[in-house]
Structure formats: structure tokens, C-alpha cells
Recover the amino acids of this structure.
């Protein structure tokens, strides 16, 4: 079964790029969102299996969105990303419920299918 | 009371008998007897004159000479009463010597008036010998005195001293028979001799008097030169003039406010005769033993109002003030007072008094007192000068203490406490306070000082009059103690405003329970302290302002960093990440032999890289335009103006300035131009930047709506920067009147 992914980033250029990357890895982008509020709404509607979430969002940070998304009934998995490399400790990442953090520049090399896939 | 005695002094009656031999012989014998008698008489007269002359030649005291003259005249003329009288000022005469037969007593030293009709007044008027004819006069007159003794006949002979009528010698009889024949000529011989005696005795007495006076003046002058306390000098003056002038009493008075006077020193002769002295009472100023109102007829009143010596004769003691009455009894006496002039003002008076029945104080008393008064005045003036000097020194020291606190930037409350204490001590008041005006009609006592344990705040409580008046007038106020109020303590107050940067901040108040709050000029003295307090307040305020400004600068710098980081992340870094991702996709495509997709990704990556470069350039420009560093302020302004939507006139010096000044002048112009473009609605603006006398003057004017808020964050931030560089920023933006932003940067 193909894994469905929600891309959350306030930069449309990045969302487009991410969509192409994810598709290349065999993942299906089922929704895009530019903010936490929008992400939650789209997630409830599209019920993605996973989400790629930017850390810096206009209405909060990606860590808190990760907590909210992973708490949804179908337990989507979350991968956080950012242009910054010093976004926080491993503890903060673990507490957020996110599966991993990948620097944006490293996304093309990352095992996205594994990280965001259900398998 | 009219009575007259006829005294036959003419030629003796002749016998008028028919001349016979016997008669002729008898007559011859009688004539011989008479001649012999006359020779004896003359010889005895001569002996009497010789005795007096010897006394005079030996320099016997005047009193003895007068007594001897009187006794000799009485004996030689067989008179019952002989009185030697000296004519005093006006129509007074003093009995200087006398002799009386039996119970008749001649009161030597007593002063009588020369009035009515009689022998004394005749001699006084004519300067020639006169006979007792019609004796009539008021009580206290020579005529009344002679009548009272029962005098029936007599003769008065003038005493001439150095060509001037000095007095009269009166020889009189209470018996019916007249004085002997030839008495007129014979008494003349005695009075002539007496004139010479008086002249020489007076010359000696005068010499002694001058010597005594010089010695007394010397003693006082020595005290003055030794800087003795005024109370000591004034007591010495009272004593010296008292002894020297043989008066009954002498006083030094000090004039106070409201017609009051204080007896500062007093000297009394013991009893009416000779000056057996008692210790001089030295009365401290604090004791104020006799302080009361002066009467109109008092010599002290006249001295004060005229500033000149004054003389009051026949003072009725009972009618005048207690000062002059004390110890002198009721009756008539004589007072002479001279002013003590200190610093051009009548400070007090030196007065001498005689008792009832004494001769009036002699002419020249005023001059002699004046010599002493001048020394006394000098002593007082010197003491005041010393006191002034000490006061100025104290005041300078107090000011220095407070100024040192201010200079060391002591906390305002410390400075206020020092101001209250120093002001209280300096003005010798009961309490002092520093008070701040708050909102509404509230005040806060920020510091208080009290001479006692009394809370100085209590002084402010009864009513806020001091604070109210200072607030209303903006000037120092002085409140006198309420007169005649028993419910409130007598309390006087002084308030001096504290003005900080032209605005009334508060006041310093001083309270006193005496009638007068503080000496004249206390306002000025207090003002020096309020200025220091104001400086301390202004310093503290500017310190607070500097702190706030620093905090804003730091906060502004932090905010700028955050903004730059955010801009970097959101802009250039984001684009660079996109470039990397896209290039990686390109590589993957090219590796997977998908050249079309690969080249498309390369093109996309190039676009991201160009955007990243663009974002970086804009960011750098926003931090500090490189055109400014390269071409200076003129180039920077040209670049700014080129982006303005309205025409802007430029007058900027092409010269270069220190980088921090160029940068901040640029920020001021950039912010001002941004406001012109965004808010002013102006259709024209002018930018100028010119060095002028070590200052770079920068200005931006527009013709827009005005009403810019100087406290807006943009302008406030600019002001902080300008002030941090030691400059100033002024914003003038009346509603509807355009806006003018002006900054000055010191070029040192």
C-alpha cells in the first residue's frame, strides 16, 4: 500500500520541491498546508499516514504540530525538517512524538520512503 | 509772696549838727577812728583775700576754694547767707559753694532756675553788680530760695571768668540792718579773685577730664582691638561714660523690630553723690530683660528717628518707658543719647541720665558720648563682620558638602536629606523638609530634618499653605507666625521652590517657632540648596534617561539581530536550500539517464541560487548600504532620494565624516524620508547635511500634515543613537505645519 503524506511548510516553493522528492520515493502527497491550523484541518480530512513538517511555522513551531498530529486516532508518523540545523535537542524531538529530523538540504539523500512509509 | 527789702548801700547819713571845736575835735577823732577802722577793715580784707589766693595758688580743689571764698565773704561782710552760683545752660544756676549762719544751710550742688525778679537774674541780664530789691520767683528759683531763707537785703556780684560771665556771688542778710558800707567794692575784690581761681581750677579740671577721657577711650579701644565680644565692649562703654561724666546711670540700648528695644548694657552710680560703682550687669541678648515699646518723648525714640544725638531735659520718669524709669525714681532729670550706627543704620543708642535736682548734663556731653559710641559701633560692626564671615564660611561648607554628594551622584534621597539638614542648621530653624509636588494637590515629603525629636512632617500638616503659595507663585514665600492665636503654636515658615529643567518640582520648607521665620536673605541662601537639589534630581532623571536609552539601544540591537536571522532563514538560506535540493534532484536525474529532467532541475536550481543572491544583497543593504561606505553620506542620500515617490531637494556636503556619524546621519535621513513617504502626505521635501562649527547638522523638512509623534519608536530609537554619539535630535511637527527633523552630531 502506498503511504500518504501531508507536507506542511509556509513556503510554496519548498512544498512543490518536497512533493517531487516524495513522489520520487514512491510516496503520495495527499495534502499541503502552510500553518498548524491548516495542517490539522487538512490532516483530519485527508487522513495522511505521515507528515513532513517544517519546524518554523507562522502560528507556532513544528514540534508542537508533531505532537498534535501523532496524537490523531490513526497515529500518523511525522518527520520534521528545517533549513536550520540547530533546531533543538534530541529530547525535544522525542517528546514531540516525531520520528526524525532531517535538514532540508539532506532531504534528497534521506531514506524518506522508510521514514515516512508505513512499513 | 511778694516781698521787698530795701538795702541802703549809699553814703552814710551825716550828723548834720553845727560845727563846734569840740564837735570838730570829736569829728576828727571819729574820722580818725573811722579811718583806722577802715584801714583795719582793708587789712583784714587783704588778709582774707591773701588766704584765698594762697589756696588758689596751691591748686586746692574747686569745692574748697568756693567754700573758702563763701566763708570769707560772709565773715568780711557780716552776711548770713553767701551763695556762689554758676550759670548753666539757659536759665539754670548751680550752687557751687556757700556759707550759712546758724541753721541756714546752703545746698551745694543743687540746681536752681534763674527766673522771676531778683539779684541773680539782674546779674545774669546786666553782667553787673545788683542789689536785692524785689525778690519774686517760682518754686525752685534762686529768688524763691532766698525768700524762703528770710533774706531781707543783699548784694550780687558777677563772677567773670576769662572775660565771660560765669556766675554770681550773692551775699545776703536776714537781719533788718543792711550790709556794711562799701560792701559792693569789697565783694568785687573777692569775686575777681574767685574768677581767677575758677579759671585756673577749671583749666586743671578740664585737663584732668581730657586725660581721663583719653584713658577711658583707650581702654575701650583696646577691647575693640582685641576683638572682645560686643557685650563686653558695650558694658565697658556704659561703665566708662558713667564714671567719666559722673552721671547716675548709663545704658546701651539696641533697637529691635516693631519699636522694641533691648537693654544690652547698663551701669549705675551708687546713690546720688559720688560714683560708688556696682558691677555692670552684662545682659545677654537671649535674656531680653527689658523689651518694650518706646515712648514718643523718649530720647531713645528721637535718636532712632533722627540718627543724631538727642537731649531731653526735665524728664518726668513716671511718664516714660520702664527702661529709663528703672532705678531713677520719679521726678525730673536729664537724658542725653547718641546713636550707635552700624553699617549705615542706627543699631542702638548710648544714653546717660541724671537724677532729679541735678544740674543738666553739661553742653558737650553729646560730643563726648559720640566718641565712645563710635568705638561701640565699631565693636558691633566688627563682631557682625566676623559673624558674617563665619556664616558665609559655614554656608559654603554646607553647600560644599551637598555639592559633593551631588557630584558623586548620590541617590536623590541622600541629597534631599542633606539639603533638609543643612538648611535647618544654617537657618537655625526648628525643622526643615524637602517636598515634592505630585499629581493633583498631593505632595510627598521626600526628606525631613528636625532640631528636636519632633517629626518635621507635623509642621507641614496643619495646612498646606507653604506648598500652596509656592505652587501658586513659583517664588519663595514667607509666612509669619499667626498673631494672637492661642490654639495654634506660634510658627513661621519659609518655602523656596525647587525647579528642575524649568518646571516646578517641589520646595524646601523651613519652620520656626519664633516670630520671624528666618533672617532677611534666607530665601537666597536657601535657593543655593534648592539649586543643588534640582541638579541632583536632573542628574538622576538624566541618568534614568541614559539607562533607558541604553536599554533601548541594546534591545534595538537584539531586535535587529533577530530580524536579520529571520530574514536570512526565510530568504537567502531558504533559497540556497532549494538550490541544493534541486541540484541533488538534477544529479539524481542525470545519474538515472534522464537528461531532460536533469537539465530542467539545473535551470531551476540556478533560479533559486539567483534569488538567494538577491535576498542576501537586499539584506546587506538593509544593514548598512555599501553605497554609504563607498561614497559617503552624499551618495547614501542620493540613493535614498532616488527611491522617494515625491521630489526631494538635496543639500548634502560631499565631504566624508567618521563612519559612525555617516551611518547614523544616514539612518536619521532614511527614517525621516520613510515617514515623509508613508505618513506625511507631503508633495515636497528637503534634505540637508552640512558641517557647521564642529557639528554636522542634518535636517529633513517636508510640507506634509505634521503631527508626528517624537516618542514614536522609530524616532525614539533615532534619538537614542544620536544622543549616544553626543548629539541632539529635535522634531518639530505641528499639526498641519509640516515636519522638520533636525539632528546635530559633534565632529570632534
Amino acid at each position: 500500500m502506498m503511504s500518504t503524506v501531508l507536507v506542511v511548510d509556509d513556503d510554496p516553493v519548498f512544498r512543490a520541491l518536497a512533493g517531487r522528492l516524495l513522489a520520487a520515493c514512491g510516496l503520495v502527497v495527499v495534502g499541503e498546508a502552510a500553518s498548524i491550523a491548516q495542517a490539522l484541518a487538512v490532516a483530519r480530512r485527508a487522513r495522511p499516514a505521515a507528515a513532513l513538517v517544517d519546524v518554523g511555522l507562522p502560528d507556532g513551531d513544528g514540534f508542537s504540530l508533531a505532537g498534535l498530529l501523532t496524537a490523531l486516532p490513526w497515529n500518523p508518523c511525522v518527520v520534521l525538517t528545517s533549513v536550520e540545523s540547530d533546531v533543538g535537542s534530541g529530547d525535544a524531538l522525542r517528546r514531540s512524538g516525531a520520528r526524525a529530523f532531517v535538514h532540508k538540504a539532506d532531504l534528497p539523500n534521506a531514506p524518506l520512503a522508510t521514514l515516512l512509509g508505513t512499513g | 509772696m511778694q516781698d521787698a527789702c530795701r538795702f541802703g548801700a549809699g553814703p552814710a547819713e551825716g550828723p548834720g549838727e553845727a560845727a563846734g571845736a569840740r564837735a570838730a575835735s570829736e569829728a576828727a577823732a571819729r574820722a580818725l577812728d573811722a579811718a583806722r577802722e577802715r584801714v583795719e577793715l582793708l587789712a583784714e580784707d587783704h588778709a582774707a583775700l591773701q588766704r584765698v589766693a594762697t589756696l588758689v595758688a596751691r591748686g586746692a580743689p574747686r569745692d574748697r576754694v568756693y567754700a573758702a571764698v563763701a566763708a570769707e565773704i560772709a565773715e568780711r561782710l557780716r552776711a548770713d547767707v553767701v551763695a556762689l552760683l554758676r550759670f548753666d545752660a539757659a536759665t539754670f544756676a548751680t550752687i557751687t559753694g556757700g556759707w550759712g549762719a546758724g541753721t541756714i544751710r546752703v545746698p551745694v550742688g543743687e540746681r536752681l532756675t534763674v527766673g522771676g525778679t531778683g539779684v541773680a537774674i539782674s546779674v545774669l541780664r546786666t553782667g553787673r553788680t545788683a542789689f536785692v530789691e524785689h525778690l519774686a520767683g517760682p518754686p525752685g528759683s534762686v529768688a524763691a530760695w532766698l525768700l524762703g531763707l528770710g533774706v531781707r537785703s543783699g548784694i550780687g556780684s558777677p563772677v567773670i571768668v576769662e572775660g565771660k560771665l560765669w556766675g554770681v556771688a550773692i551775699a545776703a542778710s536776714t537781719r533788718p540792718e543792711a550790709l556794711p558800707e562799701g560792701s559792693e567794692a569789697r565783694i568785687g575784690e573777692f569775686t575777681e579773685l574767685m574768677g581767677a581761681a575758677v579759671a585756673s581750677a577749671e583749666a586743671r579740671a578740664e585737663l584732668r577730664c581730657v586725660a581721663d577721657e583719653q584713658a577711658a577711650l583707650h581702654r575701650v579701644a583696646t577691647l575693640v582691638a582685641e576683638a572682645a565680644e560686643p557685650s563686653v565692649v558695650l558694658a565697658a562703654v556704659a561703665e566708662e561714660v558713667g564714671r567719666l561724666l559722673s552721671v547716675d546711670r548709663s545704658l546701651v540700648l539696641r533697637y529691635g523690630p516693631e519699636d522694641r528695644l533691648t537693654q544690652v548694657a547698663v551701669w549705675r552710680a551708687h546713690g546720688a553723690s559720688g560714683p560708688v560703682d556696682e558691677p555692670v550687669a552684662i545682659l545677654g541678648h537671649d535674656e531680653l530683660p527689658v523689651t518694650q515699646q518706646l515712648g514718643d518723648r523718649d530720647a531713645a525714640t528721637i535718636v532712632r528717628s533722627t540718627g543724631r544725638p538727642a537731649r531731653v531735659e526735665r524728664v518726668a520718669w513716671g511718664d516714660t518707658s520702664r527702661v529709663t524709669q528703672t532705678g531713677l525714681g520719679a521726678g525730673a532729670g536729664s537724658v542725653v543719647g547718641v546713636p550707635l550706627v552700624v553699617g549705615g543704620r542706627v543699631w542702638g543708642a548710648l544714653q546717660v541720665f541724671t537724677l532729679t535736682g541735678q544740674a543738666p548734663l553739661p553742653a558737650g556731653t553729646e560730643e563726648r558720648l559720640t566718641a565712645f559710641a563710635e568705638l561701640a559701633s565699631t565693636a558691633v560692626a566688627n563682631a557682625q563682620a566676623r559673624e558674617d564671615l563665619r556664616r558665609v564660611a559655614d554656608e559654603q561648607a554646607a553647600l560644599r558638602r551637598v555639592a559633593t554628594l551631588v557630584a558623586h551622584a548620590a541617590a536623590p534621597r541622600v541629597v534631599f536629606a542633606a539639603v533638609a539638614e543643612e538648611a535647618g542648621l544654617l537657618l537655625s530653624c526648628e525643622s526643615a523638609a524637602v517636598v515634592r509636588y505630585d499629581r493633583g494637590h498631593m505632595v510627598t515629603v521626600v526628606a525631613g530634618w528636625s532640631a528636636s525629636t519632633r517629626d518635621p512632617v507635623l509642621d507641614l500638616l496643619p495646612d498646606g499653605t507653604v506648598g500652596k503659595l509656592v505652587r501658586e507663585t513659583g517664588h519663595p514665600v514667607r509666612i509669619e507666625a499667626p498673631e494672637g492665636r492661642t490654639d495654634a503654636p506660634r510658627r513661621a515658615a519659609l518655602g523656596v521652590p525647587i525647579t528642575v529643567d524649568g518646571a516646578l518640582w517641589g520646595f524646601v520648607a523651613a519652620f520656626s517657632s519664633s516670630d520671624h521665620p528666618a533672617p532677611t536673605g534666607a530665601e537666597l541662601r536657601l535657593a543655593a540648596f534648592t539649586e543643588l537639589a534640582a541638579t541632583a534630581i536632573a542628574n538622576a532623571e538624566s541618568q534614568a534617561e541614559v539607562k533607558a536609552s541604553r536599554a533601548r539601544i541594546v534591545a534595538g540591537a537584539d531586535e535587529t539581530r533577530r530580524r536579520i536571522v529571520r530574514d536570512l532563514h526565510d530568504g537567502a538560506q531558504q533559497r540556497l536550500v532549494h538550490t541544493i535540493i534541486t541540484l541533488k534532484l538534477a544529479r539524481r536525474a542525470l545519474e538515472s539517464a534522464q537528461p531532460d529532467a536533469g537539465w530542467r532541475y539545473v535551470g531551476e536550481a540556478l533560479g533559486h541560487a539567483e534569488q538567494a543572491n538577491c535576498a542576501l544583497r537586499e539584506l546587506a543593504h538593509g544593514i548598512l548600504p555599501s553605497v554609504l561606505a563607498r561614497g559617503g553620506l552624499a551618495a547614501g542620500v542620493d540613493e535614498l532620494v532616488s527611491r522617494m515617490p515625491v521630489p526631494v531637494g538635496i543639500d548634502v556636503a560631499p565631504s566624508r565624516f567618521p563612519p559612525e556619524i555617516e551611518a547614523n546621519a544616514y539612518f536619521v535621513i532614511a527614517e525621516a524620508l520613510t515617514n515623509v513617504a508613508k505618513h506625511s502626505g507631503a508633495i515636497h521635501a528637503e534634505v540637508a547635511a552640512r558641517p557647521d562649527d564642529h557639528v554636522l547638522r542634518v535636517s529633513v523638512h517636508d510640507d506634509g500634515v505634521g503631527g508626528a509623534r517624537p516618542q514614536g519608536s522609530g524616532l525614539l530609537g533615532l534619538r537614542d543613537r544620536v544622543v549616544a554619539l553626543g548629539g541632539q535630535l529635535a522634531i518639530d511637527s505641528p499639526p498641519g505645519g509640516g515636519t522638520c527633523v533636525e539632528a546635530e552630531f559633534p565632529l570632534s
